[in-house]
């Protein structure tokens, strides 16, 4: 059985399309929607729409706890109530068009048992294949370099230029393709140990048994998959990118509703990303071996003092 966990925030039309695409899939599938405290009552609207529909559960998160904790809430609930073979965590702006998607996951697992699996994620906005995000993971030095880059990006002029790029599919596509080419990312080829994209990630039972709340909870949004890759690498987990399964990602639907201004949206992204990088830095520092205490030399009493002690 496969459980699909959808984190919903405001974008009800996207969430409904996501749910309907999952309902059309073959296999034994359950759907868990987590409303992340949407301020527009769309969580309640979803409850009414799917009331009594077998296999669909709506969970109401009392606060907007972000990506990691919101998804952890849904994954943990699905594990406790369904104990699924696989848990698919996906954004509410993702659609699946392969009817045998769930069956293919099992076939991939039979060939190579995995902890994490990432599908090919195609951005409808830009046409870019978004996964893998990076062929190798981050270490502490890479996180600090990323922090320095994000600090520079918060410059108002650079922020305005970046906002313009993200508002144009053609320009964004050009910069993304150039960046991915520099990193030698090939979305057409399977890979192991790469950083997967968080719009859709699949956990096996053996991973959720050990980690029923799989995402690092000290982030709000962004950099979750980079931290997850680092944690998995330390644990020796098997993480696979497999292009034979694919989803479509409409991208930015919730943040567009929250922030109409592209500049305000970019500022929000920068703020959240930097906070996540700080959390990643603290996590990696806490895991570094602490230096051993310096050996203390034995005290040698001078003869006169020793004589006093012996008297």
| Mean pLDDT over all positions | 88
Name given to the CATH architecture of the domain at 2-136 and 186-257:
Alpha-Beta Complex
CATH class categorisation of the domain at 2-136 and 186-257? Alpha Beta
CATH topology heading of the domain at 2-136 and 186-257:
Spore Coat Polysaccharide Biosynthesis Protein SpsA, Chain A
C-alpha termini separation: 82 Å
- Share in β-strands: 15-25%
CATH homologous superfamily grouping of the domain at 2-136 and 186-257: Spore Coat Polysaccharide Biosynthesis Protein SpsA, Chain A
Which secondary-structure class do the elements indicate? alpha/beta
Q: Which word captures the global form? A: globular
Order of helices and strands: EHEHEHEEHEHHHEEHHEHHH
Number of strands: 9
Main beta sheet strand tally, sense and closure: 9 strands, mixed
Continuous helix count: 12
Helix content: 40-55%
From the alpha-carbon coordinates, what is the Rg to the nearest angstrom? 24 Å
Q: Stretches where pLDDT falls below 50 for ≥5 residues?
A: 298-311
